[in-house]
Write a structure and sequence with these properties.
The chain has about 140 residues and is an all-alpha fold. The chain contains 5 helices and no strands. The protein has a single domain, classed as Four Helix Bundle (Hemerythrin (Met), subunit A) (Up-down Bundle). α1 packs antiparallel against α2, α2 packs across α3 and α2 runs parallel beside α5.
Length: about 140
């Protein structure tokens, strides 16, 4: 279990670095107007990296931490997020439920107006995701 946790922490660090790189780039994009093709490519990369990191945190990292706290835990993602809040791994299960919803939304195609709202919300929630990763 310790090896799996170490591997997951390494994956988190690598994936975090990728998201941070994209996050810094998208902060420079004006989302109040229609973005260029280059900006859209950057936004899509950011969205993908946001989804990937949030998935690793929830599905791998929090599940591993939960196994150390309660080896018999078999709850849903909502149950897991509630426990993560209880153990102060995150500040709000509700916020993380929204992060999970956005990850799912990002996987589908929507009109440009919907995408701009999506990217704005992803940018707003990125610091929450980054804060869930332990400092190395």
């Amino acid at each position: 279990m310790l090896d799996l946790l170490q591997k997951t922490l390494l994956d988190l660090e690598k994936t975090k670095a990728h998201l941070l790189y994209s996050y810094e780039k998208v902060k420079k994009i004006n989302l109040s107007k229609e973005p260029s093709e280059e900006a859209l490519e950057t936004l899509e990369s950011f969205s993908s990296r946001f989804a990937r990191l949030s998935e690793i945190i929830i599905s791998r990292y929090f599940r591993l931490l939960m196994r150390t706290k309660d080896p018999s835990f078999r709850g849903s993602v909502i149950d897991l997020l509630n426990q993560a809040e209880k153990f102060a791994w995150i500040t709000s299960a509700q916020t993380w439920t929204r992060i999970r919803e956005l990850r799912n939304i990002a996987a589908h195609e929507y009109g440009i107006d919907d995408y701009m709202k999506l990217y704005q919300e992803l940018m707003t929630l990125t610091p929450e995701i980054l804060a869930a990763i332990p400092k190395s």
